[in-house]
Here is the input.
Amino acid sequence: MKNQIAKRITCVVAASFLFHSALPQTAVYAAAGQQVQKVEDEEQKGTAGDTSNKQESVSDKTENPAVPDQTPVAKDTNASANQPEPEETDGTANQPEPEETDGTANQPKPEGLQDTEEPEEPGESDEPQNPDKPDKEKPEKPKLGKPLLKAASKPNGTIKLSWNKVSGASEYVLLCSTKKDSGFHRIYSCKKGTSYKDQNRVPGKVYYYQLAVFSKGRASRADSKTVSGRPLEKAELTEISNLSGSGDLALTWNPVAGASGYQILRKNTSTGKYEEAGSVKGTKTTYTDHGRSGGTIYSYKVYAKDADGGRGNYSRAMSQMAIDSSKKMIALTYDDGPSAHTPLVLDALAKYGGHATFFVVGSSVDRYADSLRRAVALGCEIGNHTYSHSNLKNLSAAQVQSVLQATSQAVKKQTGAQVRLLRPPYGSYHTSTSSTAGMPVILWSVDTLDWKTRSTSATIQCVQRNAYDGAIILMHDLHQPTAMAADAVMKNLTEAGYQLVTVSELAAYRGGLRIGAVYSQFRR
Ligand SMILES: [Zn+2]
Here is the structure.
């Protein structure tokens, strides 16, 4: 390590000496080799100053015949500045790389951009690098305004650099580095432009920028302060809770590094377009959307913002039903599935914007995992109905835990959802079952007897006649006639003003749930 440093310093000193002694002041950084001529030709044709992404050189060959065109350092600089740098894709750019550092040290730096980390630079670099410093006293040297640079995040790894129109400027040169104090290289130059989009950067990573402004003939130069830019990573919604209050939806998302705030978008239920719903500042990653209409499903997206008016990508959309505690609500429950008929029930839930609770047998979970995932995505709840429909009264405490755990684990594995409710098969349980299970026992208040009638119309009629605010309805999605009844059941209830909610949602607005307890309804 020490040897490496020593080698580096030697190299740097040698290079600095060579460079400083060979270069007049105006060729302050990154001599450009053959490309210089090309760029100048283009400038003469009036193509410079456009917004294309081409590499340009600051060095003025005409003015600085001493600039060594064949300097290998200069070629390196151009090559690395032209393309996305390999360091950025492998994520190792944060560590000092010997080659890169050497290259950086060999490059003369713009005025005011001296590498403070290099002990050999200060003192000796100032004088040789500014041999014309006394020029500042010459009255004919044109005055330049102060360049102000801003770096704002744009989606997809882009950083938008923008700056003011500087009085007296005839050339703007933008420099970039992955380090704050060194390694700056030219990424863009123009005659009149006031912005540039730096693309294909790594989201989440910090980049540093400087703007150098030159007067005509490069007689004067002014530099901006170093600014940092970071393409913001994508924010992702993690939860939308509909349990926080009447018609309120509480959003939560992952924090994004470098974000100065977040914008929340809500899908307009009539136009289908996402519109601004609200925003939060600072590091807060929650937002409550108040006063939504109960029984309606709302979709949201979120994105991170930065202090310079930039933003990251939109998150994926996430939806949730708003619950109005003043409106009627009812919990439809389906047991013994999932089965081949479950999709019919899910179609109806999607159509009417409802939630239901599926008490599943663990042995069917893997086979119909797609249906369960869809149920979870629709905002439904998955409950536990043992692994193979056991009568819990016939099992020991250890056996009860075993058949329940196997089911909860299968559900978690296939859907990611946490199982929090137990419905014992046959409604058969011990007083200790809920505590043993670590879940409240959920029974029902309306038994449709669908398993017995196997009649679509009988099931529809039974629900319609017996529904009431706070009821828990028992059905079985194992049976096709029941699944075929789902559309009419939900249509009737929705038209009658019911919000179709999960058991946990119903409970949350009607006194809550407790382990060790048994529930069959949640009246107001
Ligand atoms: Zn059952």
About this structure: Residues 1-136 have pLDDT under 50 and may be disordered. The chain has 14 helices and 23 strands. Residues 335-336, 385, 389, 425 surround zinc ion (CB under 6 Å). The domain at 329-519 is CATH 3.20.20.370 (TIM Barrel).
